[in-house]
Amino acid sequence: MKLFFASDLHGSLPATQRTLALFAQSGAQSLVLLGDLLNHGPRNPIPEGYNPPEVASLLNQQADKIIAVRGNCDSEVDQMLLNFPMMSDYAWVLLESGQRLFLTHGHLYNQNKQPPLRENDVIAHGHTHVPVAEKIDQTIIFNPGSVTFPRNGLPASYGLLENDKLSVITFDGETLVATCLA
């Protein structure tokens, strides 16, 4: 199973176009969107190419491949534009190995406030716009960073789960951080 992760698109058409092109090139079966899809939110500037309706249209073309969760900037109005569910605060993905991925945006559950997890479960979230791929105690923390508003001077990035390895990769193809699932 190969999964592609993206978070914090915030309605940026150029970032979404690049993300979807990389998703297509990756050969991943599913696009996991970790929230904040269409709106920039009150704490962020208006992103380059801000066009939520067109971002929604592009995402809808991949609706059958998308697993999405709600971010703190997502609303019921956003859901009206999207042809895939994205209003859940979290979702679980069960890997072929039996390992579980807990998908969330990060404003409700995160590294510091975790749901009940088993050893080697993964909590995948966005929200901080800072990439992470590491095992902390008995849990794997994974954050693909942000495709629109990366922080800490880092470039835009996305995540990939392939061959039991979680990686955060820049739009230029550089691996920022990675960790193995076991």
From TrEMBL:
One of the Pfam families matching this protein, by short name: Metallophos_2
Keywords: Hydrolase, Metal-binding
Enzyme kind, highest EC tier: hydrolase
Assigned EC number: 3.1.4.-
InterPro entries in the cross-refs: Calcineurin-like_PHP_lpxH, Metallo-depent_PP-like, MPP_YfcE, PdiEstase_YfcE_CS, Phosphodiesterase_MJ0936/Vps29
GO-annotated molecular function: hydrolase activity
All copies of domain Calcineurin-like phosphoesterase, residue ranges: 1-164
Cofactor(s) this protein cannot do without: a divalent metal cation
NCBIfam families membership: PRK09453.1 (NF006988), yfcE (TIGR00040)
Family membership noted in the UniProt record: Belongs to the metallophosphoesterase superfamily. YfcE family.
PANTHER family associated with the record: VACUOLAR SORTING PROTEIN VPS29 (PTHR11124)
Protein name in the entry: Phosphoesterase
Gene expressing this chain: yfcE
